[in-house]
Fold this sequence. Notes:
Elements: E1 21-26, H1 46-63, E2 66-71, H2 80-83, H3 92-96, E3 103-104, H4 114-127, E4 137-140, E5 147-149, E6 154-158, E7 165-172, E8 182-184, H5 187-190, H6 194-201, E9 207-213, H7 220-232, E10 238-242, E11 248-254, E12 257-262, E13 268-275, E14 292-299, H8 302-309, H9 319-334, E15 340-344, H10 361-374, E16 381-386, E17 397-400, H11 401-407, E18 414-421, H12 422-432, H13 440-445, H14 466-471, H15 478-482, E19 534-539, E20 545-548, E21 555-559, E22 565-571, H16 575-584, E23 594-596, H17 603-613
The chain binds ligand LLZGTKA7.
Amino acid sequence: EQPSAPSPIAAPLRELPWGQLNFLHTTDTHGWHGGHLQEAQYSADWGDYISFAHHLHKRADDDGSDLLVVDTGDRVEGNGLYDASNPKGKYDLDIVKQQSIDVLTVGNHELYQRNTSDREFNKVVPDFKNSYIASNLDIYNPKNGERTPMAQRFRKFTTKNQGIRVIAFGFIFNFQGNANNTVVQPVEEAIKEQWFKDAIDDKEVDLFLVAGHVPVRDSPEFDAVYKAIRDSNWDTPIVFFGGHTHIRDYRKFEKKAWALESGRYMETLGFLSISGLGTGKKDEVEAAASPDYKRLYIDNNLYSLYHHSGKNASTFDTELGKNVTKAIHEARKKLKLDHAYGCAPHDYWLSRTPYPSDDSILTWLENQVIPDTFNFTKIPSIILTNSGAIRFDIFKGPFTIDSTFLVSPFTSGLRTIKDVPYSAASKVLQLLNNEGQILLPDLAAVSQTDRVDLDQLRAPFAPVNEDTFFHAHTSHAHDLALEHHQTFLGRKKDGDKDKDDTPQVPGYTTKDDAGTDGDDTIHQPIKFYQVPNCISSNVSFPAPEYAAAYGPVNFRPVHISTPEKVDIIYNEFIENWILLALEYLGEKREKKDTSAVLEGKSMTDVISDWIKKSPDWACPKEKDV
Length: 625
Ligand SMILES: O=c1ccn([C@@H]2O[C@H](COP(=O)(O)O)[C@@H](O)[C@H]2O)c(=O)[nH]1
């Protein structure tokens, strides 16, 4: 772990369900390869993950089983280690490549910006030459402009010790928000291609491995792949590894097909094992009628990693793991990620507090950051931003360069549409938040533009279903972490009357299709709240008129005047939605009617500029960083 990372907190653990074929799975790491430096529960880094995988490989070699490592995309955007360098990923991509990964896919965040996907093609695909799979993604080759598959469409390989014959695919969900240098082929179309039909027709295969930046539940894409495989290969076991919705989840398709999703932000190392698979060595190993699938969501901290690898502080680190940890530290230093712009006076939560409330980030943006930033415009304005642009909580204490990218890494600039009748402008928020009679899918359906992606307005933690929403969010051991406590939270021993066995570490309490025993750490549950798609602030509106209604002391407003016209200001990422809402409201505007505001600064710039200037956020002298 990083030198400044808080020590992990001991807690009761469930055991690793080791089997014949074992998997480690990461997804949606979003650059958090240095681990969580303010949360002890997730404080291990990518170097530790490398050491961990090494020990599990060794275990597999020793007992003749196998281990495969999978990553399902969104490795970029969301942490200073990736976002603070120029070019982005200057250090992070070389750090990630040190892990040996068997199956790797793209995510939507690798495709928003042309530069990111070009670099993915020119660097990351060659870095993972044998394992990068792009079953439904093409790119216009930056060298010659020719459309070409991003990477191989599938791969067939045999596991090292057992000789299990695996065919692996790598999909991305039917994403439409990509830059125009890539082409995402709808999954339902890709599976009609001959190469796919031939691959699933193969009878010399013991397991289909479907990796994808695709949610495992309510997933038309994985449902289509499952059906296609079963139509041509009725019995061969299938395993899915998914992502994108940032949750822990495990779905049963049927007894020979399960799907694992392993959270987000390097909080979770997903583990899955299958026993009872057939192998190429037919004489030696007979396939079971019903292979046994098991899963464990490992909290990414050294306490868990030591335990599951049977190592301790003096035996855990490998040479490579240590070097990668060091490289992360060096990169963080070069990027000055610990430099503080100010100090947060208290914690601000994205979804762990009701909205609106005093400790909600969205309320803080709406009531303080946005009005203070835009009050220079003396024109009445409605400023809108999507809550999805905000990615993480702010903890009391130093708000650093790194924090800026944790909270909002995106570069899309702020734009304006001028002179919109207030009667229409004031209804845009309601439309975008699905609060009126017309809902977003209806708006999307009437869209003339083909670049409106429903996913864009998805709130940052839009639930897959209520259960997964309430059970699948970030745990947060922050208070303990900041004090560097090493608290033993073991279960009650016989005769230990004054201790109870209630879990003490707050965190995930996942409920999935296999039950409630998936989290390795037995956590105290955390409550999460829904947040709206978008928030808005009115700035430079006429002051309300007051009248003395109850005598000279008690005044109350009698007339709140509204402007006739306003400027709408918004984050460019939601521009298509704003235009669509205005069109629906009878105020059609086009791209040419929009212009940059604040010289095209992003929400990220707005937040850090505000923090630098705000006296309430000045760091106390003795704590200055
Ligand atoms: O430029 C951007 C890009 C993305 N967003 C927000 O992020 C989500 C998608 O993130 P996932 O991690 O894939 O869920 C998108 O829906 C937007 O809310 C953004 O605001 N700006």
